[in-house]
Structures are given as C-alpha cells and as structure tokens.
C-alpha cells in the first residue's frame, strides 16, 4: 500500500503510429514539483468490537485486531497495528517477509486531528517519506473515524521514468515505489511488475490525443484508479490527475522534465 503510487491503464485500441507518437513525447525522466502538487488522502477506521477494527485505506476493507501481531492484509501482505500509547498507533505492512510500510499515527489531545508519519521501504531500504495531517469527519471516537488529509508534506524525492515499450507501448517506472507498468496500446490489461507490485494488480492504457493519455489501474479485475496524464505544450511538464475509486478529491501530481 503506497498512498502516492502511480497507476497506469485503460482498455481501448490505438494504432501503432499514434502509440509511437505518444511514446516519443512522454519519454524522459520526471521529478515531482511538490509546490504545485496535491496528494489528498482519506482513511476510514471503524471499531468493530473491542480491539478489532476495520481499515479502509484504498477502497479495500481489512479487518485487524489491534494487538501488534501480523495479520492477513490486502494483496497478500501482512498488516500489524500496535497501540503504543493511548494517542499513538504504529502501523506496519509487510510483503514477502520485508517491511514495506511503517507509519506512526499520533492523535491530537482533542481527538480532532491525526498526524501520520508515513514511511515506505523497498528491498534497498527507505525510499518514501511523507507526513500527513488528517482531520476527523463524521462521528466516531479515538482512532475510529473518517479521516481526510488537510496537509501533505513530501520529504523524499519522487521520480518517474517513461520509456518506450516494445513497438507500440510505453513503460512507466516509478522509482519511488519501485513499481513498473509496461503497457501497450492494444486494449489489454498488463500485470504490474516490480519489487513492491501487489499481487493481482494490472494496468492498461489508451491515447486521447498526442499529449493526453488515460490510464486505469485494476486490482483483481476491479478498477481502483483512473488517471488523466497530460503533457504541456512545451513538453516539459507532466500533470497526472488520479481519480481514486470511492474518493471525491483526486491526486494532482505535477512533474518537471529533468
């Protein structure tokens, strides 16, 4: 689970000549301009009974006993939530025996806000550092709440590489999350690859015009994110607007060519 993971896709046929044009325009190294980007996030935590909670991080429900033990989570991962103090939870996700997420949640004294010190890890160590401040919406008490971010701070570099893929496709390589999406303009879903690729994740892609792509991500065949990927007229700015299923506010990532 990575909050800022870039997902690519959608299933519509595009001629090879058009695909080649799109590929040549988008190819390059891209670095996030955090001052122009917005990464709103939403989490839902429901107290089911006692110390059993239902977590909704990305539209998929995970039921966890909050006792610090590893328990089955989404995408073949293990999720653990440890109550370190009345106002502090430690959230850890493992995949393949390795820690991929460690987050410290701190609840304000009035219970109105939650600060999430989110850290993502790859096989080589730390790779993503973000601090979120969430505001409670609706009812609930303690950590049980609908939480919407009001501030997001990216502490680490965030880069994407776009490369040609085969004769009629493009490859989006997310260096931060270590996830790669190799896609062709043939209307087919392609498995997501990379060290942190969730089992069951796939992507496809279509072209709207020479400077616009529409990308859709799926998990076990269900659409999770649809993205509008736009290239500026000078070809130096890439804007990715991520529409996440079940959320009202999209992520807007503005990246500059390096």
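Q: What amino acid sequence fits the structure above?
A:
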């Amino acid at each position: 689970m990575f909050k800022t993971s870039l997902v690519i896709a959608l299933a519509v046929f595009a001629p090879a000549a058009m695909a080649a044009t799109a590929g040549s325009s988008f190819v390059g190294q891209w670095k996030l301009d955090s001052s122009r980007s917005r990464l709103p996030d939403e989490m839902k935590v429901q107290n089911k009974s006692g110390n059993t909670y239902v977590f909704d991080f990305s539209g998929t429900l995970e039921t966890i006993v909050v006792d610090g033990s590893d328990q089955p989570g989404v995408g073949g991962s293990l999720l653990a939530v440890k109550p370190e103090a009345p106002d502090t939870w430690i959230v850890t996700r493992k995949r393949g025996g390795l820690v991929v997420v460690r987050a410290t949640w701190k609840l304000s004294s009035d219970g109105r806000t939650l600060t999430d010190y989110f850290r993502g890890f790859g096989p080589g160590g730390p790779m993503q550092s973000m601090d979120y401040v969430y505001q409670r919406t609706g009812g609930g008490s303690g950590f049980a709440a609908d939480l919407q971010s009001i501030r997001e701070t990216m502490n680490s570099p965030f880069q994407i590489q776009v490369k040609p893929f085969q004769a009629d496709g493009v490859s989006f390589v997310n260096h931060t999350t270590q996830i790669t999406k190799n896609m062709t303009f043939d209307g087919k879903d392609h498995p997501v690859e990379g060290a942190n690729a969730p089992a069951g994740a796939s992507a496809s892609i279509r072209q709207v015009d020479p400077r616009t792509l529409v990308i859709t991500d799926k998990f076990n065949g269900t659409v999770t994110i649809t993205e509008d990927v736009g290239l500026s007229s000078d070809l130096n700015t890439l804007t990715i607007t991520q529409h996440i299923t079940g959320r009202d506010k999209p992520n807007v990532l503005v990246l500059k060519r390096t």
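Q: And what stands out in the fold?
A: The radius of gyration is 19 Å.
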